[in-house]
Amino acid sequence: MFGGHTTPTFRVRDKISAQYEDGHHHTGRPALWCKAPPGAQDVLVGCDPKRFFVPPYVGHNGWIGVWLDVPIDWDVVGGLVADSYRMTAPKRLANALDLTA
Fold first, then answer.
1. Taking a C-beta distance cutoff of 8 angstroms, is the pair 8, 2 a contact?
2. In terms of pLDDT, which residue wins out, 6 or 56?
3. What is the largest CA-CA distance in the chain?
4. In a designed cystine with 55, which of 65, 67, 93, 99 is the match (CB 3.0 to 4.6 A)?
5. How confident is the model at residue 96 (pLDDT cuts 50, 70, 90)?
6. Rounded distance, CA 14 to CA 54, Å?
7. pLDDT, mean of residues 13-22
8. Helices (H), strands (E): how many in the chain?
9. Taking the CA of residue 24 as centre, how many other CA atoms within 13 Å lie in the half-sphere pointing to its CB?
10. How far apart are CA 84 and CA 24, in angstroms?
11. Domains identified in the chain and CATH numbers
């Protein structure tokens, strides 16, 4: 599905768990935004601001932004996306993800 600016969003039962941004928010840089567990945003942005940032609009809710135009640790991104899915999905679906891992 697509968000309001025709950027791809990843949803669980009509709730957004992650979103691709093509740089139209005045950055000119591609990024992934996703929900993050409490405290993760501060740790990631504080430790590595060249790779992580607080996204506009949803950052105040703890979402994390990941720049996609720098070297990326895809295991870290995969973990963030999985956490975001777990935070968005109903418990039954979130538990099913844990069973397949």
1. yes
2. 56
3. 40
4. 65
5. confident
6. 23
7. 91
8. 3, 5
9. 10
10. 23
11. 9-92 (3.90.1150.30)
